[in-house]
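Dear Dr. H.,

I hope your travels went smoothly. While you were away I took the liberty of generating a structure for the chain from your last submission, since the lab meeting agenda had it listed for discussion. I wanted you to have the full record in hand beforehand rather than looking at slides cold. The sequence, exactly as received, is reproduced here:
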Amino acid sequence: MNAELKRLEKLLPNDLLPLVAIAIQQRTSASSTDSRLTLIRTKRLDRKSYRIEIDGNSWQEIDLDYRNLLFWHEVARIQQHSIASYPWELIVFAAGLGMSMIEVTSQQVLLLLDFGQKQIRQFA
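The corresponding predicted structure, in token form, is as follows:
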């Protein structure tokens, strides 16, 4: 497994080397019934660092070219920033977007009311 870990680290682009940690996890017989385990997945640790987790038992059964392809796919997801972010970031973004929409529409309504009052005064 140590040789496979070094081989995967060599596949990483140089700009991602300090940002990505690779973890190869061996399943024990007790944890083999866990249905949440996947072959390869990426977790976002903080704003700029990631961890690629690999199921070591299933990983060794796959052909080398296919393993490279799966690994590069995860690297591409990191480079494209398509790893799921923290849920609170999405909530803050949605709240900010909602507040900006309220602000824009309230300004439009106030301008419309002001224009309407000027028109009424003009005809009166």
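Two observations you may find useful: The chain has two domains: 2-79, 86-124. The first helix runs from residue 2 to 11.

With kind regards,
E. W.
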